[in-house]
TrEMBL record:
Keyword Repeat among UniProt keywords: no
Keyword Lyase (UniProt): yes
GO CC aspect terms: cytoplasm
EC assignment: 4.2.1.51
Keywords for the protein's UniProt record, in alphabetical order: Amino-acid biosynthesis, Aromatic amino acid biosynthesis, Lyase, Phenylalanine biosynthesis
Domain ACT intervals: 220-297
Entries under NCBIfam families matching the protein: PRK11898.1
Protein name: Prephenate dehydratase
Residue ranges occupied by any Prephenate dehydratase domain in the UniProt entry: 19-205
Pathway participation: Amino-acid biosynthesis; L-phenylalanine biosynthesis; phenylpyruvate from prephenate: step 1/1
Biased composition (Polar residues): 10-19
Region Disordered, residue ranges: 1-20
UniProt cross-references to InterPro entries, sorted A to Z: ACT-like_dom_sf, ACT_dom, Chor_mutase/pphenate_deHydtase, Preph_deHydtase, Preph_deHydtase_CS
Amino acid sequence: MRDPRPTPPEGQQVSNETTYGYFGPRGTFTQAALAAHLESVGAADRLDASVPFATVTAVLDAVQAGEIDLGVVPIENSVEGGVSATLDALNARDELYIRAEVLVPITFVLAARPGTTLESVRAVGSHSHAWAQVRGWMEANLPAAHYVPTLSTAAAAEDLSGLDDLTYQAAVCARMAADTFGLEVLASDIGDNASAVTRFVVVSGPGHLPAATGADKTTIMLFQHDDHAGGLLEMLEQFAARGINMTRLESRPTGAAMGSYGFSIDFEGHLDDARVAETLMSLHRVAARVRFFGSYPRADARPAEVVPSASDESFADARDWLEQLRTQG
Ligand SMILES: O=C(O)C(=O)Cc1ccccc1
């Protein structure tokens, strides 16, 4: 009989022993991202055995310690920008690599215990990124409501259903979380931006570089030698000179001193592409440190547009030409 499961991209084969963890509890947007990822690699049946962790750092610690093979965490939001908790936690741990990315459209509901009216809601619990995306709706519909931060959107829903002495009466979460924890939906589609998308990453330990697909992304963090005029430009021109398009650039404080920053960058291409390899080698020369977080297939499978002068063939031709000069010149 034919195996009905889709064939996963090379380098992303999942065995029945592969263990997954995610930023939970059940009902988070991160769990939805894990479900979408498992579907795409033909391993939807692994969802039930996946382990929820209460924080992003707990997921990454479990991957680092080898308790789970792969962990899923949010990294970037189309409305709020980078998830700094994830960027900083990845950076603080050696030997963690991004193996895949997942894009999830985000829609929020306001959920409460059955019988609660909108008028009786005086405070709302949720994850800070969710709260930031429903501010407009809150100002228009619950202008006096206070915000209570919770570890995740689903944690707000779970606590609402199970604990009695809470300081909030409603949660901003996914409809799935409201259903999971027996809450009633007071209002749906309350996000200020109907096309909000969050990007999640699947993280593992070393030694599992996915094969190049032609539609890949690479994530790195760059650290400057010292603060000098043109320092950032010097690093960025390495990308421009080799026709590489960046898809995210953020500065993050290193924590070492006021004004000390690292640059977190996603760009198109794979470590096995000549233009990427050459760029990384040049960055290694001009930067104090280059942290490589992995090359992995793009979630939207959009192939990189590579100008002819930045193709693998063009780099190989240039190398052959140089070799010829060395032997005959
Ligand atoms: O709290 C959650 O459900 C998460 O997975 C983090 C999050 C919060 C808000 C938008 C997207 C992801």
